[in-house]
Amino acid sequence: MTTTDPWMEALAADRELLERTGTAERVADVLRRHLIEGRLLPGTRLSEESVGRALAVSRNTLREAFRLLVHERLLVHEFHRGVFVRTLTVDDVADLYRLRRMLETSAVRHARTADSETIATVVRAVEEGEQASLRQDWQEVGTANMRFHQAIAALACSRRVDEIMRQLLAELRLAFHAMSRPQDFHGPYLGVNRVIADLLTAGEYDQAERRLDEYFDTASTQLVRAYEQL
Amino acid sequence: MTTTDPWMEALAADRELLERTGTAERVADVLRRHLIEGRLLPGTRLSEESVGRALAVSRNTLREAFRLLVHERLLVHEFHRGVFVRTLTVDDVADLYRLRRMLETSAVRHARTADSETIATVVRAVEEGEQASLRQDWQEVGTANMRFHQAIAALACSRRVDEIMRQLLAELRLAFHAMSRPQDFHGPYLGVNRVIADLLTAGEYDQAERRLDEYFDTASTQLVRAYEQL
DNA sequence: GACTATTGAATTGTTGAACAATCCGTCAAT
DNA sequence: ATTGACGGATTGTTCAACAATTCAATAGTC
């Protein structure tokens, strides 16, 4: 009876949903949220004692959480000095955009193999951005823009690409928060996003890729330029 | 006097060379080497007590090392059960090849901006593979092939791409070690590698990219096919 | 015999304390 | 202003303890 039951496989697919998680992971989640929301300025030192006391976890558990975030490049670790909120260099920002361009344009190129629901997610992100723009909710415009690009990367249908993209965007937020008017780097691209989404639904993948590539030309130089003046 | 001395900058560039490293990192290095060299069969459980005793480190330090390797997907962590050497599924192998194809073809496309030394590294990897093939040293043929693809990815001139590629290839080795005759998956591609390298030195980037894409068509289906029969 | 419940040993999860190693600011000396 | 020594504070690492959980073996039930 325990052979290949058709329903059992459906259950097994949801196996990962009930993955229990330890304290270190949860601590890392909390810190990660604070980091990507810009509550901690780059360069800030996170002392084991104070953070541990604030979250009521032991130093050992906290250090495990720190390791995770260091591996995700949100924190940097200096031996015998502690962990600090990462401060991205101009080279880092340029590098992040290089990687983004590679992943996203490749994803669009392989979009013809993606199912319609995946493309619908892209469209939805654009719509949410447009509505947020009408409300003049620039904060939400920014996160909708992030979701748009996450959705673009998802066209590759690869768990690993999704994961890399998640990390990449989290890291990029460190750069955005360091600047004075982050809105300027999301609002102007609403139109391009719409065009790309429409091209995707129309099946014009080559054109979508070209538009995306042009977007990166302007967006990356703009951000790098702005980031250069510390 | 401590202003912008021309030599001081040269020194500062070598700053990263003296990064001291803690015990956890070194433990992770040791375990990583054993993992990618196939000394531990996938599915093997690494008990904190025995590994800690073997390496003479405390449980806490060992757990920090485990976290790093879990983050690199070389180990998997099951709550209250321990860490195990990862066993890749067929989907994992397919996903790894999807990501490789994206990164490597994109890297080749942007190869025109890479300096000649970076391309020379590709050629060198091919030559080392060819010489190892003459010696019938199939082990070395395999690692030379890995170096070739690492060098291809390096054409993107991105620290992050290099890092992702390193992890990706380490993960792939888990799949190779699980198979009976790993040689079959490196040797046949020596010719293609040579062709791609020659096209790169000749500046024929589009053709190089097309050849690489074709390589992935055959290589990925071959490996997935072989991996399906457990 | 097949299935379920219970028990207990073994392992992991987490904490707290301890000590060594190192960093950093301070102050004195030159 | 530079150097050197001192001392407090922080991190690096280990150890011991206990709670939580798994796993295998046992016994019990139909």
UniProtKB/TrEMBL annotation, chains A, B:
Keywords per UniProt: DNA-binding, Transcription, Transcription regulation
UniProt-recorded Gene Ontology molecular function terms: DNA binding; DNA-binding transcription factor activity
PROSITE patterns with a match to the protein in the record: HTH_GNTR
Chain ranges passing through the membrane: none
Limits of the HTH gntR-type domain: 21-88
Pfam families tied to this protein: FCD (PF07729), GntR (PF00392)
PANTHER family linked to this entry: GNTR FAMILY REGULATORY PROTEIN, TRANSCRIPTIONAL REGULATOR, GNTR FAMILY
Protein name: GntR family transcriptional regulator
